[in-house]
């Protein structure tokens, strides 16, 4: 089963080469790397070109970008990876091992947050535990899924926020996720920039509001003007 990694980007010129360089060993093993860029103004697509199998230019919107990447992918297994998240060196082996059993159609990795704050360990542990208890994964955990299952549930919903939460809920109907103990490492720079507790409270507030029926569009509009002070990690 060939593995394809889909990476949505927008103005990631400072980080994209490092992100893709970390994937070259997987690429040499036959893993397909697809970058889906939202027409960045900083040359992200050009920098990504030599280090990816394919670079696609689309309209901005992470869900839309990841769906476009999935449609172009040749792999039977898809991994959706944020540009500021690093996979473990043996990610392909770990995914193939758990998926070849045929008992799982999707899953995610445990996460570790890289940064100066000691509390990042506690935050990461709580994210991993919550994911195990609820069966819900977030984008920072590098979700992976069988291609046919992804399209069977309609892919990512075209939402400005919570697209990973909704996709998880859809995939749960097909079965529980494979929760890999291998860890991806995601950058804590946004947590450090916006404040740890402020970021945690904002993330929980957004999820609670969404759970109680407020639309993702309304939630995105709520903090759009505050994204430089309290946007959640990875928000675009």
Please provide a written account of the structure:
The structure is a single chain. The protein has 236 residues and is α/β, with parallel strands linked by helices. The protein has one domain (3-188): Spore Coat Polysaccharide Biosynthesis Protein SpsA, Chain A, CATH 3.90.550.10. Helices cover 43% and strands 19% of the residues. The chain has twelve helices and eight strands. The chain has helices spanning 16-21, 24-28, 44-48, 62-72, 91-99, 120-134, 147-152, 163-172, 189-194, 196-211, 216-224, 227-230; strands at residues 3-9, 32-37, 54-57, 77-80, 85-86, 106-114, 144-146, 178-187. An eight-stranded mixed sheet has the order 3-2-1-4-7-6-8-5. Helix 3 links the parallel strand 2 and strand 3. It is globular and about 40 Å long.
CATH superfamily: Spore Coat Polysaccharide Biosynthesis Protein SpsA, Chain A
Secondary-structure arrangement, i.e. CATH architecture: Alpha-Beta Complex
Order of strands across the widest beta sheet?
3-2-1-4-7-6-8-5
What percent of residues are in strands?
15-25%
Globally, the shape reads: globular
State the domain count.
1
Order of secondary-structure elements: EHHEHEHEEHEHEHHEHHHH
Number of DSSP strands? 8
Any idea of the CATH class? Alpha Beta
Low-confidence stretches: 226-236
Which structural class do the helices and strands define?
A: alpha/beta
Our count of helices gives 12
Amino- and carboxy-terminal Cα gap? 32 Å
C-alpha-based Rg, rounded: 17 Å
- What is the fold-level CATH name, i.e. the topology? Spore Coat Polysaccharide Biosynthesis Protein SpsA, Chain A
Task: Report mean pLDDT, rounded to a whole number.
Answer: 89
For the sheet with most strands, the description reads: 8 strands, mixed
**What is the helical fraction, as a range of percent?**
40-55%
